[in-house]
Amino acid sequence: MVVRSVLTLVASLILIIGVLKERRLLMLPWLLVSAVSIGGWTVSAIVLPLGLASMDSASQGEGDGFGPLFILVVGIIMSMVVVVGTFMFLTPLSHYQVLSSLESLRHGIEAKSEGFRNANNGHDPTMIPLTDMEHA
């Protein structure tokens, strides 16, 4: 439990640095840790109510069972944890995808600009020298 908490803390700090510096690869540790956590929560949301129900049916004659309402409440709470965790995961994932698109655009613009410079003897065609401007 302590190891997971420290791992999550470190991944969160790296995520914050990645967002501030617009470095999408620094967001990957948090995305990975969160995806694994959501997977664990999903398994728990399925297994825990089933386990409680089986324990309840095993102790049916003793009167110490959980009761169907308790099992239903546990299932609903666990499902809500999974839904909220998924939404919290989607926001940084969306930002990661935006940074990925921006990075692709930057590389494309740099490549085109370099191609223009090479075709125009090293001059950038988007920059008009002041000597070539005509006055009306």
From TrEMBL:
This is Uncharacterized protein. The chain crosses the membrane at residues 31-53, 65-90. Residues 116-136 are annotated as: Disordered. It comes from Notodromas monacha. InterPro entries: DUF4728 (IPR031720). Keywords: Membrane, Transmembrane, Transmembrane helix. The keyword Transmembrane helix applies.
